[in-house]
Amino acid sequence: MLNRYPLWKYLLILLVLLVGLIYSLPNLFPEDPAVQISSDRGEFTLDERRLERLETSLSDAGIDIQSVEREPTSVLIRLDNADDQIQARDMLSEALGDDYVVALNLAESTPAWLESLAASPMTLGLDLRGGVHFLLEVDMDAALQQRLEVNASAMRETLRDERIRYRNTEIDTRAIRMDFMNAEDRDEARRLISREFPEFEYRNLERDRGAGLAMTLTDAAVEEIQDYAVNQNLTTLRNRVNELGVAEPLVQRQGPARIVVELPGVQDTAAAKRIVGATANLEFRLEARPDTPEAETESFPFRNDASRNATLMRDVIITGDSVSNANRSFDENGRPQVNINLDGTGGTLMNRSTRTNIGRNMAVLFIEHKTRDRTVIEDGKETTVRTPYTERGIISLATIQSALGNSFRITGLDSPTEAAELALLLRSGSLAAPIYFAQERTIGPSLGEKNIERGILSVEIGLLLVVAFMLLRYKVFGVIANLALGFNLVLLVAAMSLLGATLTLPGIAGIVLTLGMAVDANVLIFERIREELRTGLSVQQAIHAGYERAFTSIVDANITTLLVALILFSIGTGPVKGFAVTLSLGILTSLFTALMVTRAMVNLCYGGKPVKKLWI
C-alpha cells in the first residue's frame, strides 16, 4: 500500500527523536556564574571558619550566594547573578591575599537524572564560554645554552673514553671553550670532536700555560636549534593541554619565537599557568666521590630542605626527555611517588650507569626555569623588566641497590598534588627551552553570555522567517515541514552534545545556515508533489512520486555540501572547524528529518486514506 511505513520504522523514528530530546535537554539548564578559590602552589587549605567569614562579607556586600561547594583542591562559590562575579572575585582576592588565586568560573547545573544518563550540555568555545588566552615567548638564548651544555657533556665523555686530559670547560653564548695540558692533546681532541660535532666551527686558542680550543656554533646550526625549540615546545604544550582535558584548545605558533595557547572554559589561571608554563625537567646524576675534581662536580640544595646539600657529578645519566610514561601512586608507607618508564635509549643508559655503580648514591635533580618581573620607569613610562633565573633542587638521593632498567620510581615528593603534576609534565614531555608569559588574558563568562544571547537571537530570527515562509507557501505541509525543522534543531543539538563538539560563534552561523538549508529538501519534495498533481496523478500517487523522485536530487546536493564541510574541517583551524562541525552534523540531521520524519508524518496524515485534495 502506498504511503505506509511498517510499525518498526515508526518506532525507530520515535526512538531517535526521544533520544535526541533527552540528550539536548541539558542545554536548557544554563551554567551558574561562580567564583573559584584555589591555591597558587597546588596545595589547598582553607578552614571552615575563614570560609564562613568570606561568605558573610559577600552577603553584606549584597552579593547573593546560591551555594558553596568544597572540593579537594578548591572551593566553588555559585552566585545568583553573573554581574556580581567581578565584584566577588575582587573582594575575595583582597581578603585572601597572594596565597590564593580567585578566578571566575562557570559551574554546570545539569540535573542528576540527566547526568546519570551521561547527558551533558554542549561544550562552548572561548568566544562563548570565556577562558584563558596566553601568548608565550620561547627563550632562544636558553635553548642555545641547553644544547651547548648537552654537547659539552658529550665532548667530555668522549675525551675521557680516549684518555685525553682537559682542565676545564667554559660555555659562553654560542661557544664552548676547553683547555688542555699541551698542543698535542688539543689537536687530538679537535680531531675527535670535530668528527662527531660538525655543527661547530673550531679555532685554536693560545694560552700562557697549555693550549685552548674554541668551538662556535654555525649560523645554520643556531637557526636549526631555535626552530627545533619552538616546534618541540609546540608538541609538548599540545600534549599538556590534552592531559588537561580541555575541549577544542588552540595551540599554534605565532612568528619566529612565540606560541599562542587558548583554553576555552578554563577560568582558573593559576592551574593553567602551572601546567602550561611549567618548564620543569629532571636530571639523574650520580653523587660525586670525595676524590672527584671540583671541575667535574656541582653542589645543590634539597628541594624540601634548603639547609641540606649534596655534591653531584656534572655529567647527566639521563634527563626527563627519556621518560616514555609516568604516573602517580603511593608507596608502602602511603607517601606519594611517581612511577617512571624509560624509552629504549634511556633504559640502556640507566642500566649501563647503575650496574657499575651499585652501592653509590644517585640523585634526582628537579630543574625549573622561572622569571622575576619588576616594573621600572624609563623616560616617564612604566616598563616591565623580566629577569630569568633557574631553580635546581634535589628531590631524592638514594643508594643504588641493583642495576636499574626501564622502570623505577621517584620518591621524596611533598604531596600527592606535586606527584600528579610531575607525572603529567613527564608524560607530556619537557620543554626544549623555557617559555615566558608575554601576554595573559582571561575572557570572562559575561562576554560569552552576550555572544550566546546574540547567537540565539540570530537562530530565532532565522527560524521564524523560515517557519513563516513554509506556512504561507505550503499550508498543512508547511506545518509538517516546520515540525520537522524543530526536530532537526533538537537532533543537531543532541548530536553536538553527545560527540562533545565545541560550539563557537562560527558554529552558531553554521546552525543558522543549516536551518535555512533544512527546508530545501522539503521544498523540492513539495514542489514535486504539486507537479505530479498537475499531471493528473491521484493524491496518494503524487505523494509517493514526490518523495521518490526528489530523493536523488536531495541526496546529491547534500552529499556535495557534506564533502565541502569535511574538507573545511580537515584543513581549517579554529573558527573554520567550528563552522564545519555544525554544518556537517546539520546536513545529516536534515536528511533524516526531511526524508524520514516528514514522510512518517505525511503517511500518518494521508496514508491509506481516500483524500481528494491536498492543502499544499
From TrEMBL:
Biased composition (Polar residues): 336-346
HAMAP family assigned: SecD_B
GO biological process: intracellular protein transmembrane transport; protein targeting; protein transport by the Sec complex
Listed InterPro entries: SecD, SecD-TM, SecD/SecF_arch_bac, SecD/SecF_CS, SecD_1st, SecD_SecF_C, SecD_SecF_C_bact, SecDF_P1_head
Key words, A-Z: Cell membrane, Membrane, Protein transport, Translocation, Transmembrane, Transmembrane helix, Transport
Organism name: Halomonas organivorans
Protein name: Protein translocase subunit SecD
Region (Disordered): 327-346
SUPFAM superfamilies listed in its UniProt record: Multidrug efflux transporter AcrB transmembrane domain
Function (record text): Part of the Sec protein translocase complex. Interacts with the SecYEG preprotein conducting channel. SecDF uses the proton motive force (PMF) to complete protein translocation after the ATP-dependent function of SecA.
Lineage: Bacteria, Pseudomonadati, Pseudomonadota, Gammaproteobacteria, Oceanospirillales
Boundaries of every SecD export protein N-terminal TM domain copy: 2-104
Domain Protein export membrane protein SecD/SecF C-terminal: 438-601
PANTHER family tied to this protein: PROTEIN TRANSLOCASE SUBUNIT SECD (PTHR30081:SF1), PROTEIN-EXPORT MEMBRANE PROTEIN SEC (PTHR30081)
Ranges of residues in domain Protein translocase subunit SecDF P1: 230-287
Record-level Gene Ontology MF annotations: protein-transporting ATPase activity
One GO cellular component term: plasma membrane
Subunit description: Forms a complex with SecF. Part of the essential Sec protein translocation apparatus which comprises SecA, SecYEG and auxiliary proteins SecDF-YajC and YidC.
